[in-house]
Amino acid sequence: MNKPIIKIVFTDLDGTLLNSSGMVSEANLKMLHQLKQKNILRVLATGRNLYSLSKVISADFPVDYVIFSTGVGIMNWKTKQLVHTTNLEEKQIQYISRILIKNNQNFMLQWPFPENHRFYYLKNGRIGEDFQRRIELYKEFAQPVEQAEMKIASQFLTIFDDLESFNRVKKQLEGVKVVRATSPLDYKSIWMEIFHDKVCKGMGCQWLCHHLNVNRMHTIGIGNDFNDLDMLHWTAHSFVVENSHAELKADFKVTNHHDNHAFHEVLKDFV
Predict the structure, then answer these.
(1) Res. 270: pLDDT tops 60
(2) Residue 15 CB-half CA count within 13 A
(3) What is the phi/psi pair of residue 5, to 5°?
(4) Is 261 exposed, middle or buried (0-12, 13-18, 19+ CB in 10 A)?
């Protein structure tokens, strides 16, 4: 049986391409260079904004495009040109704010690109440790407001301790995209990220493939968390790493642990 033709690879970063030390293994780095030699496009699809991303990869990191902030924007990594972005508009911001306040949810409202590492925050109930930890971590970019008043924003972030509460609030949010993610700070809290309805990693993959004239059948996706689901459902060949949630491992092909060169392990069978 012939191997599928692969023209573009989409990979999550934290917990997938990066190991537990936040580094790219020698084997994974070698594979990124091999993909270049085979004219296969390399795309990072990450929940990080560009400021956060700059803390873990260099400006000359060997990828071609970056889908950042879970799909808020797409950048040509070689030229640093923004090729696509989608933000929440004023009516959406007001609508989401009302629902979160009604449910006594604290939330953060991220500025639009290119300042989307900055945010306003509203303390509207019990202040969880994970919420306070993020404020402390990014205190130079955080600004408290009694009620956020922005005409354009990249996303909302609100944090839950349990899935039942997450689902209860999610059901109330219509006409926007709600994405679940595991906290990268305490690795247990449930983050709800709220975007324009055209934003998620999967839609970012779709937009970029259309932009580059790449057929969906020639795509691979690799991830590890719930915010990768849209991407993994969209790509033709989809894999999750061994350190993924059990729910994801039940639905997708499982490859190595991210500490065991998972990216290389997936791609070696295609290159």
Answers:
(1) yes
(2) 22
(3) -80, 125
(4) buried
Specify the pTM: 0.94
H-run or E-run covering 244: none
180-206 burial: b if 16+ Cβ within 10 Å, else e: bbbbbeeeebbbbbbbbeebbbbbbbb
Q: Does the pLDDT value for residue 191 go beyond 90?
A: yes
| Contact by Cβ (8 Å): 126, 176 | no
Residue type present at position 47: G
Q: Which amino acid is at 58?
A: S
Domains of the chain, CATH where assigned: 8-86+200-267 (3.40.50.1000), 88-196 (3.30.1240.10)
For residues 187, 113, 195 and 99, what is the CA-based torsion angle, rounded to 10 degrees? 90
Query: What are the distances in angstroms from CA 267 to CA 6, 72, 157, 198, 255?
Result: 10, 27, 33, 29, 10
Cis ω on the peptide bond leading into residue 62 (within 30° of 0)? no
Q: Report pLDDT digits (tens) over 205-215.
A: 999 999 999 99
The candidate with the shortest Cα–Cα distance to 142, out of 90, 151, 133, 93, is 133
Size (the chain), residues: 271
